[in-house]
Here is the input.
Amino acid sequence: MTAALEVKGLTTRFDTRGGAVTAVNDVSFTVEKGRILGLVGESGSGKSVTGFSIMGLIDAPGEVRAGQVLVDGSDLRGLSDEDMRKMRGSKVAMVFQDPMMTLNPVLRVGDQMAMAVRVHRKMSKNAALEEARKALETVGIPSPAERLKAYPHQLSGGMRQRVAIAMALLHSPSVIIADEATTALDVSIQGQILAEVRELADNTGAAIVWITHDLAVVSSLADDICVMYAGRIVERGTAAQVIGQPRHPYTKGLLESIPALHEPGTPLPQIPGSTPQLSRLPQGCPFRPRCPRATEICAKTPPEDTVDGQTVLCHHPLERS
Amino acid sequence: MTDTLTPESNVTAVPAAPPAETRVMRLRNFWSDYRQSWVAIAALIVIVALVLGAFFAPFLVPQDPYDLAKLDWLDAFLPPGTEGSGGYAHVLGTDNAGRDMLSAIFYGLRTSFVIGISAGALALAVGITVGLTAAYFGGRIEALLMRIVDLQLSMPAILLALVMVAMLGQGIPQIIFALVVAQYAYFARTTHGAASVERRKDYIEAARSTPLPTWRVMFKHLLPNVLPPLIVVATVQVASAISLEATLSFLGVGLPLTEPSLGTLISNGFKYIHAGRYWLSIYPGIFLMITVVAINLVGDQVRNVLDPRNSR
Amino acid sequence: MFGYLVGRLSQAVVVVFVMSIIVFVGVYAIGNPIDVMIDPGATAEIRENLIRQYGLDQPLWRQYFTFVGNVFQGDLGRSMVYNTSVTGLVFSRLPATVELVLVSVTIAAVIGIPAGLYAGYKPDGIAAKLIMALSVLGFSVPTFWIGMLLIMAFAVELGWLPSGGRGEVAEFLWFKTSLATSDGWAHVIMPAINLSLFKMGLLIRLTRAGMVEAMGAEYVRFARAQGLPDRQIVFSHILRNISIPVITVFGLELGSTLAFAVVTETVFNWPGVGKLIIDSILTLDRPVMVSYLVMVVILFVLINLIVDLIYARLDPRVRLKGGS
Here is the structure.
């Protein structure tokens, strides 16, 4: 069976005034139908750029330099601009962070949704509105017909994000990319939406890439987890592996600094230093300056090390107990 | 909330805050950003050259155009490049009274700069005072002052200036006063906008709770923070004061021919364009245009540099 | 909504009232019009009669109330120069100005908005840079000077167009306009272009800024992620968003176009109200000055009110706040 999404060696560069910056560096991962992949990293780690690269939405001065993006086995990278546009929304869809900003404030929800329907399927406006109503129903929005007539500012934040998710679902895409989709929401709403997303993946068979900085969110949601640091995936495995037995020192540091998982009353461990600037990465392993296990050899490019399907990019991975 | 991965929460060693920027450093940064555009540099050079030229006009040009004793009627309407009775070539020709146009233009430029800069500076001072007063005191005073300012802003400057000039009559001080009345509102609005944002910040509250006199708090603490947007408005307003004055003079309600500005020269020359004597109005017009466009280009670049959204 | 309207209207009335006092007092502080009007050799008796005839012997406050009383009866007084009723004078000149303003505003919108959209869509292209350079010119070079250049080029040198005045007028529907004759168009086109340049520059900058901002907006990214083509994003999403500030500013600027017509009308000798006010200032024709200014104030207040209402109508977020 071909995977819904297979990313191979994806590399995206930005040529800025301060020099070229490789925001996404040789990134590879696979998501099967109905599975959720958590893509975790700090801001600036390249996780959002990875999402936009998959969508073909990288604007100048950025450019996808290498790699393949296979959706249901066919490569999106070779497509013309026009063919790629036709894939967006129908085969691959995306949900963004701030639901206040992603909907156009001066157009009714229904008009925006109908436009998204009709761009990929020829039908009357009324039929498109009916499709939109059904999609709103799917994501659990009460009295969807009325919501279609509303303007975005008349809906709550959680409601707006549900609308955005419904819009992503309109054409039953094979892949949905969600970029910090619940970060701006209250914790209780976040929980509801996460549960709904889990259900959606199971019911529709869509492959979901869940991009977030919040390891706690993906630990409960995702099947698999990729951890990104400075443009590279430094650790990849099932959620149980990565959360339960992290092998990269960076992943371990992240997990230890989650307050909820930590012994109360003792100081919270932290990762020393701060995120490196992509234009000034150290030689070899980019995590080297902040890593407690770093030695001389880390100045060389770290090797890939795989145990039981859990891959780590490190000279000194932690041992599995 | 498990906000685990934001960089701040993971930093143990807080990096030392950048050293407080000195005024010199700020100026140097400003300049290095400013010179990114060669158009803006060229515009700045042009302005400096014109201001120097206008200031030193008596030493640069061949004639004092308003010393009537030196004018010769026989020299009237000489086309550019012709040699007149003075024994030198009139590079830009002569006007209906035999004035050397080049000399007249540089003297006119002087008048235009004096009016533009003093009107701009006065409008700036009045505008800052009104804007800061409104922002600092708030309440009724603010409502009343800003109401008036908004009302004036909704009227075009040319109309206000026209009315003022009609009331006051002709002459340089009258024109400057009219321009200040027409333009102070832009500064007041800008100051008020920036200052009322600043006012809500803690440091002003802190300064207010000390026994410092009100005006000190206003000018020492509020003013420096509203200065950048004001600098931008000021450059643009000097240009528009110059062009407004020229317009008024052209309409015949500005300066009389006895103390001409560029606008008066153009207005005078306009009478002769149908006779093909283009040089009477074209050349002063070109100088006016270059001056106004150059100031605007400089203002544009200053805006780009000072805009916090563009900072690196 | 109704309460809002009543509030705004009463505010407008207060503004007009206050402005009329300022204008009246201001204008009446200027010189003595009688000296301008009559022959210096006239007898003291003729002089006294004239002063009484125009009510100039009354105290200022009584003159003002007489003026206001007359205004409510539709009488703006008599011109001291033309010796006709000001109302008739203004209304005979108004069509020419309205005609000029309408044509120039149309030119500004038809050229300025698409140019600004394009410059914002491809902000780094050569065409965009050129458009922006032209807008700086249109906006900073004084109107009268450009008008003069136009006359020099197209009237004096090339001889294609008349250098001034209003052309033949013909009946169109119920009023006379020069837009109904080809001679009329030949006369109106140059002044209209002249008057439009400033506004065009403004519109270009405004639409460009809106476009640039919108192109980076999240909702545009989201629309692209849905597979909408750029053309549809621009016309269905962005245009609707930037039309709000553009229409607002455009409406407000309508009034200033009317004021700037003063300059263009003088350059092109266009017989509109702008030319009338300049002449009245030069001849100290007080009633005409006062009437013109009060009319302009009323017009401005009205335009502001209408623009506010349109704004509330266009932006759903505002509609909710001011709502019923």
